[in-house]
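ok, trying the design again with the full structure, not the truncated one.
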């Protein structure tokens, strides 16, 4: 045949998930080489998962975000730190819904939606920029 294969919705979902989580990592300035490899590793595992259950394609971004969050907790510490609460112990944001479409970072202490996964830079962008 030789033609270009159209990109499947599944590949698009994985590609988008990777880009969204990388954008959030860059927003927090943690997109180092070893961290990027954590994202790649999660995408590989979630590719297998979504091939078994294609209806879950919309859930992949939230799942990759949580995979990377878990992997970072072991290696680097909490991520992403809550930019909303100015006082108290530093704490990480959670992904909500844990298994659903349109995932957001939320602060469960303040009970607020902070940003969509992939848009964390907009929530914390003002703080670090000079
Ligand atoms: Zn908070």
């Amino acid at each position: 045949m030789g033609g270009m294969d159209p990109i499947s919705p599944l590949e698009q979902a994985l590609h988008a998930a990777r880009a969204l989580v990388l954008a959030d990592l860059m927003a927090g300035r943690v997109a180092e080489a070893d961290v990027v490899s954590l994202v790649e590793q999660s995408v590989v595992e979630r590719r297998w998962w979504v091939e078994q259950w294609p209806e879950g394609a919309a859930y992949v971004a939230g799942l990759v975000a949580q995979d990377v969050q878990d992997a970072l907790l072991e290696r680097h510490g909490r991520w992403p730190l809550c930019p909303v609460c100015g006082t108290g112990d530093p704490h990480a944001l959670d992904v909500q819904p844990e298994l659903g479409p349109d995932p957001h970072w939320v602060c469960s202490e303040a009970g607020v939606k902070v940003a969509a996964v992939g848009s964390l830079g907009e929530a914390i962008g003002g703080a670090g920029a000079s």
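Keeping the full-length input from now on. The mean pLDDT is 90.
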